[in-house]
Each structure stands twice: as structure tokens, then as C-alpha cells.
Amino acid sequence: MGETMYEFVEKFPEMENRIRGISARSYMNSLSEYSKCIAFNGSHNMEHAKVDEICKKAIPYFSDVLYSTHNNLFKEAYFKYFFYWVYYERSDYKKIRNVINDFYKLLLDIYKHQLPDLNHNNNGTFINVELEELNNIYSVYKCYNNIEFMDGTNRDGVFCKAVLDIPKKYKTQIFTEIKENSTSQIVSYCPNNIAFPIIITILLVFTISFIAFIMYKFTPYRSMFSNGINNIRKKRNNIENEWNVFQLSEISNNVLSDSRYNVLYNSE
């Protein structure tokens, strides 16, 4: 249903008129299909009179689409509206509502060869959520339609605006809740984002140290590591020796400077 659900609703008034216009004996023109439909009574232990009544409406209604020159969207709308009609327009069909999908699949199966252009796989299930969506949309559609054609004064414009504001209100509320949830998730993720690189760094240091230890202890590269370490130590010692010599030189220079200063001072 999905992408074209809203287009179906626009065609529902026409289908409503068609189903109301079906005469009591119209099903006689399609007795083969009617026999398959009425078999639903035996397989689901339904009340015979109710199933018979529905089938006498369903078969002429669906047979009508066989001779329709409309596109597939219009033909699918036939199927959708009928089950909306059973579910919402006929409160006396309570029992069949519980097995609405089974009845829907039965009618799809009856007409699958006669209506090969329809995507019967996608239409195999009619869940309650879809029916509820269609009911809500069609209720608003009928409200606007009745107000628009009641007269030319549009005296119920205030009422129409109130109806229009309802979905806007809930749309804003839903958007706000989604935004707040998203912000909350971003804040909760911040500590994880900070901790993650620290953990990775610690693991890398530990891994490198462990690999170096293994290579030093248990591989032929031990001597190479030892030589490398000794070279580093020698360089460090040389640097320290040079630094010590430099420090001694500095001290000697300072001592000589002080001595000269003292001699000059005493001579005066």
C-alpha cells in the first residue's frame, strides 16, 4: 500500500457510490466466483447469512473492475475500499473483522487470473494499522468534501481550519519529541566519544610493549635489541659526560672570574 495510500482515498467516494448501487441479484452474473466466496463460511465457521451478504456485495463489486479501463492504481483502490467498508461502515460484520486478512486473500486469489496486472503479493495482507490510517484520512477527506459542496459561502471555514490544525499540532509535537530524544542521545554519547580514543591509545601502547617484550625474550632479535639498548645507553652517557665537562668548565670559569675580581678589589 505504502506510497499510494493517499491516492486511494481520493477515489473512495466513487467506490462508495458503486458499492451502494449494487442490486440484490447482481451476483447472479458471476456465480462461479460467488461459489468460491461463499466457501469462506465453511472454512472459518462464520455465520452463513453474513458471509452470503458480503459475497453478494463483493462479487459484483469486484467483477465491475474487470471491465474497468482505469489504471492499476484505480483497480487496487477497489480492493482497499471494500475492506475499509467491511471494517468501518458495517458494524454488524464484527466476526469477519477478526479474519479480515483471510477473506482479503480469498478474494485476491479468486481474481488473480482475471486481474494479473495487480501486484497480489504486495496486497496479500491488510493489517489493522493500514485500515486505521485509511479511516482517519478518509474521515478528514469527507469532512472537507462535505463543507466544500454544502454551499458557496464557506461558512464553516473556522471548523475546517480547526480540523486542519489537528494534524499540524501532532506533527509539531512528534517533531519536538524526536528532536529532544536526538539531543539526549547526543549528550549521552559524548562521554563514550571521549573515553574511546583513550582506551584505544592504552591498548596500542600495551600491545606494542608486549610485542617488544616477546621479541626481546624469545626471538633471535634479542641481541639486536640489546645492542640497540646499549647504543642508546652509550649515547646517553656520552651526552651526560659532555654535559658534566661543560658544567665543570663553567664552574672553573666562574671561579677564575671571582678570583680576578677579588684580586682587583683587594689591590684597590
Secondary structure layout plus pairing:
Blueprint: H1 5-20, H2 31-38, H3 40-44, H4 48-66, H5 72-89, H6 94-97, H7 100-111, H8 128-150, H9 157-218, H10 222-267
Helix pairs in contact: 1-5, 1-8, 2-4, 4-5, 9-10
- Share of β-strand residues: under 5%
Structural class: mainly alpha
Q: Give the SSE string.
A: HHHHHHHHHH
Number of spatially distinct domains: 3
Please report the total strand number as a whole number.
0
Q: Which ranges are low-confidence, i.e. pLDDT below 50, for 5 or more consecutive residues?
A: 182-191
- Radius of gyration over all CA atoms, rounded: 44 Å
Q: What do you see in this structure?
A:
- The chain has ten helices and no strands.
- It has helices at residues 5-20, 31-38, 40-44, 48-66, 72-89, 94-97, 100-111, 128-150, 157-218, 222-267.
- 79% of the residues lie in helices and 0% in strands.
- The protein is elongated, with a radius of gyration of 44 Å.
- It has 268 residues and is mainly alpha-helical.
- The protein has three domains: 2-149, no CATH class; 156-219; 229-267.
Task: Give a quick rundown of the structure.
The chain has 268 residues and is mainly α. Helix content is 79%, strand content 0%. It has ten helices and no strands.
